[in-house]
Design a protein that fits this description.
The chain is of the alpha+beta class. The protein contains 6 helices and 18 strands. It is globular, with a radius of gyration of 20 Å.
């Protein structure tokens, strides 16, 4: 349950940091609304959706459910292995099922669009002593600027730090990660490597290295899958994250590119058929 300690009680705690506490008191959103109200609104926003986003209809959900369960177990194990938890701090976990998108407004005013099959975790004191987000999956962040308290994202293979900007992080378990910046400046870390990105720049992890990402673009936040000169490998990953189904094609076709879009009702089978015709290639769905 939420810790109800008063400010005076908190100041007596052994790990109390007066500088962070004082900085937290200067947040822009605090001048407009009570922090408890902002936190309660956030918790209301992350309640499970009654009607998940309707992407790739119910005939795929049974298979997707087993994939999601494995992902959740893995994500939970990774999170608790990577973070030293405080028993007095509640963790708020937001999850999306396969085929579901979710938009969340955090207590500091930052907005997160969570992609299908993803898990986001924040602590109860988010916006007070920290602005740290744990992410397994993909999310688009529009971060409220706060120079006194940077916004920090930790994924399985990548860490991102910002003051206030808009960017996409894709960091699913067992896959290489990508970060793409839409606005502002972002610092990305992976296995000791570090890069500073500005608008229009992107990076990817590859065998422990952090490399500039060239080529195609992919937009997913409005439900449609929109590709611009995206490789078949990138498209296959996007389809798998959304539907739980894999596209199969010959290795020599992996770098072939495609520009086009698929609406939220387009099945993986239809996507494979369209790509086959557009690229004159043999592309099909991996049997379950």
């Amino acid at each position: 349950m939420k810790n109800e300690k008063s400010q005076n009680d908190v100041k007596q705690m052994p790990d109390f940091d007066s500088d962070i506490w004082n900085a937290a008191g200067n947040y822009i959103y605090d001048t407009k609304t009570n922090n408890d109200q902002a936190w309660n609104r956030f918790k209301d926003n992350v309640q499970p959706n009654k009607r998940p986003f309707s992407v790739f209809r119910s005939q795929y959900l049974r298979v997707a459910a087993s994939i999601t369960l494995i992902g959740i177990i893995t994500a939970t194990a990774w999170y608790f292995a990577a973070v030293k938890t405080n028993k007095n701090i509640e963790l708020i976990v937001t999850k999306t099922a396969v085929g579901e998108l979710k938009k969340i407004t955090l207590p500091d005013g930052s907005v997160v669009q969570l992609n299908s099959g993803s898990t986001m975790t924040v602590s109860e004191d988010f916006g007070q002593k920290n602005r740290e987000v744990k992410l397994v999956g993909q999310a688009f962040f529009d971060v409220k600027r706060n120079e006194k308290l940077p916004f920090h994202i930790v994924g399985p293979k990548v860490e991102v730090s910002v003051l206030g900007t808009a960017f996409d992080v894709c960091s699913y378990n067992g896959e290489e990660a990508t970060v793409q910046v839409s606005r502002g400046k972002v610092k990305v870390n992976s296995s000791g490597a570090e890069k500073i990105l500005t608008k229009g720049m992107a990076v990817k992890t590859e065998n422990g290295a952090l490399l500039d990402k060239q080529g195609g673009e992919f937009i997913w936040t409005d439900g449609e899958l929109v590709f611009s000169k995206a490789s078949l490998t990138e498209i296959a990953d996007a389809v798998f994250h959304r539907s739980g189904k894999r596209l199969l094609f010959e290795e020599k076709e992996a770098t072939r590119t495609f520009t086009g879009s698929f609406d939220d009702n387009t099945t993986p089978e239809k996507i494979a058929e369209t790509l086959s015709l557009a690229l004159s290639a043999k592309i099909k769905i991996k049997p379950q």
